[in-house]
Design brief:
This protein is α+β, with helices and mostly antiparallel strands. 33% of the residues lie in helices and 36% in strands. The protein folds into two domains: 34 residues, no CATH class; 94 residues, K homology (KH) domain (GMP Synthetase, Chain A, domain 3, 2-Layer Sandwich), CATH 3.30.300. Strand 2 and strand 3 form a beta hairpin. The longest helix has 23 residues. The relative contact order is 0.14. One of its GO terms (molecular function) is peroxidase activity. One of its GO terms (biological process) is response to oxidative stress.
Length: 143
């Protein structure tokens, strides 16, 4: 079992308050977040951005392992994840994570690429934890 940690500190109310997020690795250390970073695109981070980063990274690594098991390796894979936050009743919910992959993988055909990309999409741990619609648009460049 592997445990990873992060913590948040918040001061004040929901709209005017401010907080910081720190991760175990220190990559984020007292990174500011608040209403304006979440809903107004001000400098700082927000939970949805962190989910998008986690999903892009997890999916891409899962695909690298799928490729390895098939005896293949990517020259390059670039994944963008766009996480959608929508109003739901009196609150909000993450409703979607849209993955867009562009990959250069020597020696793979389109059918195998599609199969492995789908397996990574459904099999990565972050996909499994999200209670949201997950979509994947995968483009294979000839390499």
């Amino acid at each position: 079992m592997i445990n990873r940690r992060a913590h948040a500190v918040w001061q004040g109310n929901g709209k005017e308050g401010k907080g910081t997020i720190t991760t175990q690795s220190g990559v984020l250390a007292d990174q500011p977040y608040g209403f304006n970073t979440r809903f107004e695109d001000k400098p700082g981070t927000n939970p949805e951005e962190l989910i998008a980063a986690a999903h892009a990274g997890c999916f891409t690594m899962a695909l690298a392992f799928q490729l390895q098991a098939a005896g293949l390796a990517a020259t390059e894979m670039k994944t963008e994840a766009v996480v959608t936050l929508e109003k739901e009743g009196d609150g909000f919910k993450v409703s979607k994570s849209a993955l867009t992959l562009t990959a250069t993988i020597p020696g793979i055909d389109q059918a195998k690429f599609d199969e492995l990309a789908h397996a990574a999409e459904t099999g990565c741990p972050i996909s499994k934890v999200l209670n949201a619609e997950i979509t994947l648009k995968a483009t294979l460049n000839q390499g």
